[in-house]
C-alpha cells in the first residue's frame, strides 16, 4: 500500500511542478496516468483488505482523494473549458475498457483450462481403451 501511495504522491508532485512552471497540463500526461494507475491499485488493495490496517487504508485513500481534488482544481483553472468533465468521461470509458479486458482475460484463461482438461481426459480415455484392447487381445492369445 505504501508503494502505491508513494507512486501517487510522486506523480502528483510532477503534475503540480509542471503546472507551476507554466507548462500545459498535457505536458504532465504520463504523470497523470501514473497517478491514476497508483490510485486504482490502492483502491483495489483496500477493497481486498490486503493493504494494511483500516486506518492506513482510509488515510491513504483520503490522501489520494485530496490530491484528486487538487488535480480537479488544476484542470479547471489551468486547463481548457470543460477539461475536467472530459477527463471524467475519458476515465469512465477507460475504466470500463479495463474491466472488459480483465473479464476477457479471465474468460480466455477459463476456456484454455477447460480445453486442457478435455484434452487430458481424452488422452486418459484413449489410454484406458487401448489397455482394454490389449487385455482383450492378450486374453485371446493374439498378443
Radius of gyration computed on alpha carbons: 27 Å
Instruction: Please tally the β strands and state the result.
Output: 0
Biggest β-sheet strands, sense, barrel: none
Rounded mean pLDDT score: 88
Pairing-aware structural class of the strands and helices? mainly alpha
**Global geometry:** elongated
Poorly predicted ranges (pLDDT <50, ≥5 residues)?
none
Strand content: under 5%
Order of helices and strands: HHHH
The percent of residues in helical segments reads over 70%
N- to C-terminal separation? 67 Å
Put simply, the count of helices is 4
Folded structure, characterized:
The structure is a single chain. The protein has 143 residues and is an all-alpha fold. Helices cover 85% and strands 0% of the residues. The chain contains 4 helices and no strands. The protein has helices at 2-20, 29-48, 54-78, 83-139. Helix 1 packs antiparallel against helix 2 (29-48), helix 1 runs parallel beside helix 3 (54-78) and helix 2 (29-48) runs antiparallel to helix 3. The chain is elongated, with a radius of gyration of 27 Å. The protein starts with a helix and ends with a helix.
Amino acid at each position: 500500500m505504501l508503494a502505491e501511495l508513494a507512486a501517487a504522491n510522486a506523480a502528483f508532485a510532477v503534475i503540480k511542478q509542471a503546472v507551476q512552471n507554466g507548462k500545459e497540463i498535457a505536458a504532465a500526461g504520463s504523470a497523470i496516468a501514473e497517478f491514476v494507475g497508483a490510485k486504482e491499485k490502492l483502491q483495489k488493495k483496500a477493497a481486498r483488505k490486503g493493504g494494511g490496517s483500516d486506518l492506513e487504508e482510509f488515510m491513504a485513500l483520503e490522501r489520494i482523494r485530496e490530491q484528486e481534488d487538487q488535480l480537479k482544481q488544476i484542470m479547471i483553472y489551468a486547463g481548457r473549458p470543460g477539461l475536467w468533465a472530459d477527463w471524467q468521461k475519458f476515465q469512465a470509458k477507460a475504466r470500463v475498457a479495463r474491466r472488459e479486458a480483465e473479464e476477457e482475460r479471465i474468460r480466455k484463461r477459463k476456456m484454455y483450462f477447460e480445453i486442457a482438461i478435455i484434452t487430458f481426459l481424452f488422452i486418459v480415455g484413449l489410454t484406458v481403451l487401448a489397455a482394454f484392447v490389449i487385455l482383450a487381445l492378450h486374453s485371446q492369445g493374439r498378443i
